[in-house]
Amino acid sequence: MIVFVGQVGREMREREAFQELDYRAVFGTMAKWATEIDDPLRIPEIVSRAFHTACNGRPGPVVIALPEDMLRERVSVPDATAFTPVEISPGKDEMNRLQDLLGQAKRPVALIGGSRWTEGASAALMKFAERFSLPVATTFRRGHLIDATHPCYAGDFGIGPNPKLLARVKSADLLLLIGGRFGEMPSQSYSVLDIPEPQIKLVHVHPGAEELGRVYHPYLAINAAPTAFCSALQELQPPKQIAWRGESDTAHADYLAWGEKATPVPGKVNLGEIMVWLRENLPADAIVTQGAGNFSGWVHRFYRVRKFGGLVGATSGSMGYGLPAALAMQTLHRDRIVVCVSGDGDFLMTGQDFATAVQYKLPVIVLVADNGIYGTIRMHQEREYPGRVIATDLRNPDFAGYALAFGGYGAVVEKSADFPAAFAGARASGKPSIIHLKVDPEAITPTATLTGIREKSLANGGKS
Ligand SMILES: Cc1ncc(C[n+]2csc(CCOP(=O)(O)OP(=O)(O)O)c2C)c(N)n1
Ligand SMILES: [Mg+2]
Fold this sequence. Notes:
Helix content: 25-40%
Largest sheet: 6 strands, parallel
Shape: globular
Radius of gyration: 24 Å
Low-confidence stretches: none
Mean pLDDT: 97
Number of helices: 17
Structural class: alpha/beta
Bound molecules: thiamine diphosphate, magnesium ion
């Protein structure tokens, strides 16, 4: 992302000018590069560098402040030529070493994540996984990188993964981490690999050279983008006798079994049943977006992403991400169904963007899982300080009425069985829609209740 921001005039800087910010300082720790254009003659140079910086290596945002008087100056300079992204390809030696490591492995697993993937890279990876019978799991919020029904898909390795998948990763003798960085979420709070020398042979493939060896010392580091790396995988040949043959089938069966049926939860609306309905009724190319909160656990466990780009969520876990993401996706893909799954607290962080959906006729369908609480935080309160609840209750609007007030479509779902009709109503309206799901706050995860968490914590003297 390249962000151009208005800045006060150059002669007013550092005089407490109205709405002045030091953009370099404010975005310095968040963006890949934050700068200001003082001289209009340098616009081509700086804008060209912005594109290269934002897209090279590990992609990231660039912020460029534009002093308003600079913008009014007239200059004559040639344009910079269009930017071409730089591919980062693995070396022959590294691919040979990978071939050897796969030849020696008994229980390999691949974890895929990060960015710089394409539909082609995802397809190439799936072919490779098939030829090698390799179980492939996705890291936190990266479920869109592989078809969930692919016979080698082992599941989501984000928050609260399938215990069988966790055991599989922990007992692997070769871990192929492609594109991801194994931060807190996928590393299960840094409990999977020893730091800095992993006890499992780690092959880390990443487009950013500075990421290789940052936390984990890889057995084999490959500085490559997933695009070029997955294409190079075609050259590798599986061992004559695949020592782990059948493991991908088992891993996939474990994945399917883990999310097959909704778990019973208190209350009449079961998010698991709704996710199962969506996975059975949405077309394969549907796009699901989400923000952050406990509700998203049901998406990762029960929904199955079929097509590249079919799941959009922030790995930073920022609430309020789902609706703007849905608007962006619907703008890019007018012909695909876009469903935003949000929590009540989550939705209200950016719910006013519903006006934009109405303005631009973007028929996104927003599900608001209304449990009347900041569920994640309440769960932590009950776990760490049982019964000491503070500032996690929400006073919510009538979300369906909210949709109507903006000129959209709204429906209320009081029990799971009402959901299909509400969804059909939203589709038939052709309008941006909100489906208000009345969820019982006790249903805090697919397998735990708030009261259960509190009682367990009390029984342990206040600590889980
Ligand atoms: C912008 C932002 N603010 C705060 C948080 C911390 N946070 C994580 S989950 C959560 C509560 C989510 O509540 P809700 O959307 O209602 O979902 P629920 O957990 O109830 O399903 C909070 C406050 C965050 N992740 N992002
Ligand atoms: Mg909530």
